[in-house]
């Protein structure tokens, strides 16, 4: 196991380099970089679609500006250096976990990410928790009553819920429950109320959770189907195996068979995949959900960074997310061995 983990940790380095290299080249080839956007703003242009970058040519967007000013703008964003120099500099900075500063926010990338983390962590953690708390019992129940009216009806509801866009569901919730046209039960915007600092500890917790109810419900909506059906299929597979049939023949009741024999084996994929599911929910914070509920998280940050070609923020967040995703993959493998000691990644034939 130790050798396997060492190999996995060593593979993080080339994987990070590969991911960052591909995205670096894609962003460099994309038209409308920060230099062109700055020139366009200075000339009060509404569109910059005709701007193009050339190695030894002036920018088309620079018409009307002094060449010296264009050179200063290029130097400001580091585009006075060659493509190779910028690439090597990026890799060297990331190796030291120096993510640089945003082109437009006058702040370091690390501080910007930390500022947006509360929203993304809140949505990711509580939506993942809600999905697991509902999907696992529901999946077990569907497996036990496979083919029954309950199984068919619950599957129909899950499929319909999975087909509803999360942002549309959010709009409906706002209209009916957040002071839109009917009830005014839940707050409409933000992660906390304006008087949050003046509340007691219990008041702060209640206010925080109350603000999260609707966005967490929307983010969780699409995650129920996959986990519920995975749980059902895992239990169905184990229920028909010889050890479960033998336990039933020896007189064990349904609960003893389910939770004493089947549960550990059936939950192997589900529990070991929890870190990956959580990180997935955390990273993919829905942009539209953040907009609908006026939440300023990583989803909105990523969108604005791509639109503005804020390269330090784009590459910095991508670097951190990729690194954490690789670490989480290793944690998932370790959980496999903890849940089922029969699994040995270090075995020659395993």
Q: Can you tell me about this structure?
A:
The protein has 350 residues and is mainly alpha-helical. 69% of the residues lie in helices and 0% in strands. It contains 16 helices and no strands. The relative contact order is 0.13.
Describe the protein's topology.
Layout: H1 2-29, H2 34-42, H3 67-76, H4 83-95, H5 109-144, H6 149-163, H7 166-177, H8 201-221, H9 224-239, H10 242-249, H11 254-266, H12 268-272, H13 274-283, H14 287-292, H15 298-308, H16 311-339
Helix pairs in contact: 1-16, 5-8, 5-9, 5-13, 5-16, 7-8, 9-11, 10-11, 13-16, 15-16
Instruction: Provide the gyration radius in Å.
Output: 26 Å
* N- to C-terminal distance: 11 Å
Strand content: under 5%
Order of helices and strands: HHHHHHHHHHHHHHHH
Would you count the extended β strands for me? 0
Shape: globular
Largest beta-sheet characterization: none
Mean pLDDT value? 79
Percentage of residues assigned to helices: 55-70%
Sequence stretches where pLDDT stays below 50 over 5 or more residues? 45-63
Described by its quaternary structure, the protein is single chain
Structural class designation: mainly alpha
- Helix count equals 16
